[in-house]
Design a protein that fits this description.
Elements (H helix, E strand, L loop, with lengths): L10 H11 L1 H24 L5 H6 L7 H12 L5 H13 L3 H7 L8 H10 L5 H8 L8 H14 L5 H10 L3 H14 L5 H9 L15 H14 L5 H9 L5 H14 L5 H7 L5 H19 L1
Helix pairs in contact: 1-2, 4-5, 4-6, 5-7, 7-9, 8-9, 9-11, 10-11, 11-13, 12-13, 13-15, 14-15, 15-17, 16-17
C-alpha cells in the first residue's frame, strides 16, 4: 500500500505556497508549531530524556558501541540539511531500541514534513502507550501526508490507547488514503473495540455521534477494513463480512478480503456463503473462499 503514497513537494516550496495563499493561516500554523515544540520539550524533561546530557558529556571511550551510534545519529538531527536529519532518524528507528527512539522525539516538531514523518516511525520502539501519546496529535495535522503516516505509525505501536482516535479518523477524515491507513492501523492493533467501526465501513452506515464522513466510501478503504476485521477476530463482524462477500456489486478486491477475514475468524456460519463464492467469476475471490473453507475445516477437526 505504500506504493500509493504520493511524493511530497520540496519543503520550502510547500511552506512558501501556504504563506502566499493564506498569510493568516500561516501565522497560526507557526504559532501551533511553537506550542508543539514547547510540548515536546516538556515531555523530554518529564520523561527523563534530559538525562541524555550525561551521555553527551561522556568520553567516547566510555560509551558502548550502540550508545556511540545513537549519539552520532542524534547529532545529525541538528543538521541544516533535511536529508541528513531524515537519514539520521531512519537509522535511529532501525536500531529498534527505546533509547534510540527517545533520541528521535524532538524531531516530531521539525519544520520539514518529511522529517516529522521519519520521526513518527522512529519513535515506535518506545513503550506503546508513550509512543501513541506522542503520535496522536499528528492525526490532526493539516497535511494529508502527515496524518496518513501518523496513522500507520500508531498501528506499529500496537497501543490500544490509539483505537479511539483512529476510529474517529476512519469515520471523519476527508482523504481516503488517511481513512485506509487508520483501518490498517486498527487491524494491526487488533482490539475488538474497533470491530463495529470497521464493519460500518463495509455496510456504508455512518458512525455514531454528530460527525459524518467527509469523503465517499472508497474501495481501498473497504478493502483495508475487511482485512482488519479478520485481524481483529470479532465474531460480531461475521454478518457484515458475509453480506459483503455475497454482494457481487462490491469490488472483487473487497470480496476477496471479506472471504479471507471469514477464514481467519473461523465462524462456521460463514460456510454457506464461502461455498457459494467458490463459483465466483473472479478467480481470486474463488481462491480466497477455498482457502477460508480449508481453515474452517481444519479448525473443526481440531
Amino acid at each position: 500500500m505504500r506504493s500509493r503514497r504520493a511524493s511530497m513537494p520540496a519543503d520550502n516550496e510547500l511552506m512558501n505556497d501556504f504563506t502566499l495563499r493564506d498569510p493568516v493561516n500561516h501565522s497560526f500554523r507557526l504559532n501551533e508549531r511553537r506550542w508543539m515544540l514547547i510540548a515536546i520539550a516538556a515531555w523530554v524533561i518529564a520523561s527523563g530524556l534530559a538525562g541524555m546530557n550525561d551521555l553527551v558529556g561522556q568520553s567516547p571511550d566510555r560509551l558502548t558501541p550502540i550508545q556511540r551510534e545513537i549519539e552520532k545519529q542524534r547529532q545529525r538531527l541538528a543538521s541544516a540539511e533535511v536529508e541528513e536529519r531524515r537519514d539520521g532518524l531512519m537509522r535511529l528507528g532501525n536500531l529498534h531500541r527505546p533509547d534510540a527512539s527517545r533520541a528521535a522525539v524532538t524531531a516530531l516538531g521539525d519544520p520539514s514534513p518529511i522529517v516529522r514523518v521519519a520521526a513518527a516511525h522512529a519513535i515506535v520502539s518506545l513503550p506503546a502507550d508513550e509512543a501513541a501519546n506522542l503520535l496522536v496529535p499528528l492525526l490532526q495535522d493539516k497535511l494529508e501526508f502527515i496524518r496518513r503516516e501518523g496513522a500507520y505509525a500508531l498501528g506499529e505501536t500496537r497501543s490500544r490507547s490509539a483505537v479511539t482516535p483512529l476510529v474517529d479518523v476512519l469515520a471523519t477524515d476527508k482523504e481516503a488514503s488517511v481513512r485506509a491507513a487508520a483501518a490498517i492501523a486498527l487491524g494491526r492493533i487488533g482490539d475488538p473495540a474497533a470491530a463495529s467501526a470497521l464493519a460500518r465501513v463495509l455496510s456504508g452506515l455512518p458512525g455514531k455521534g454528530k460527525k459524518k464522513p467527509k469523503g465517499e466510501i472508497d474501495p481501498f478503504v473497504m478493502t483495508a477494513a475487511a482485512r482488519s476485521l479478520g485481524q481483529v477476530h470479532s465474531a460480531a463482524s461475521v454478518d457484515v463480512l458475509i453480506a459483503t462477500l455475497s454482494n457481487e456489486s462490491v469490488a472483487a478486491d473487497v470480496r476477496r478480503e471479506a472471504a479471507a477475514a471469514l477464514g481467519q475468524i473461523g465462524d462456521s456460519s460463514a460456510v454457506p456463503a464461502l461455498r457459494a463464492a467458490l463459483a465466483s467469476g473472479d478467480p481470486y475471490v474463488s481462491e480466497a473462499a477455498r482457502s477460508a473453507l480449508w481453515k474452517l475445516h481444519a479448525a473443526a477437526r481440531n
